[in-house]
Amino acid sequence: MNVYIREMKAHRKSLIIWCIGMIALIGSGMGKFAGFSSSGQSMNQLMAQMPKSLQAFLGVGSLDMSTASGFYGVLFLYIVLLATIHATMIGATIISKEERDKTVEFLFVKPLPRKKIIGIKLLAALSQVGILSTITWAASLLIVGRYSNGESINSDIGVTMIGMLILQVLFLVIGTAIAASTKKPGKAATLATGVLLVTFILSFAIDLSEKIEGLKYLTPFKYFEAKTVMDGGLELIFVGISLALIGVLAVSTFVFYDKRDLNI
Known about the structure:
Blueprint: H1 2-10, H2 12-39, H3 43-48, H4 52-58, H5 68-100, H6 104-107, H7 114-146, H8 154-181, H9 188-208, H10 226-232, H11 236-259
Helix pairs in contact: 1-7, 2-5, 2-7, 5-7, 5-8, 5-9, 7-8, 7-11, 8-9, 8-10, 8-11
């Protein structure tokens, strides 16, 4: 429990900054929706006139941009990117920082098995992710609700948040697995972020070319897109793939870290 409290305190300031950043993103994004609405411009027509590449960059699909929930669906692309970056970074650093900061020797003299320490660290990382997700959910309901004009938004925001939480946990364990397996702890966050960016760029490429649509199974960013889940809910195949990957990567974190030689 002391290790858990230590980790929560160590990441307290950064978590507050991430939460503030998330609230600011949602607030500023929905502020643009209010600006477009008051100007009398048709958002759907405006987006339809844009090049396909720009539509893909903005995350425009079958969403009705004239509604608060539809506009939020476009904004969700950047919300989930911010959330997964946070999850990836904390997953990579919560393990690798002990070797990077030369505190691993002190940590492992405690009367706890190595696997238990890693388990506690994972629990602390999951708590951080859960807090950011909860703040994002609450901020979305409050801010989007302000512009909804009586439109029902709870179910649309709820389903996107569930998808986001799954992605957060997935990228969290990607970060921990990389940190546990690499011999250079200082590069764990860089490698994990590289994986995130490659999969994010791949999701754009798939939107631009139907010929590579089959690659959507290789990028988690295609699993829970707002334009898909708001219309038909979560797809069980993508939920199943995500949970399976989370399980495999979590086990790999324990196995890799338990067997590796630490840089003390």
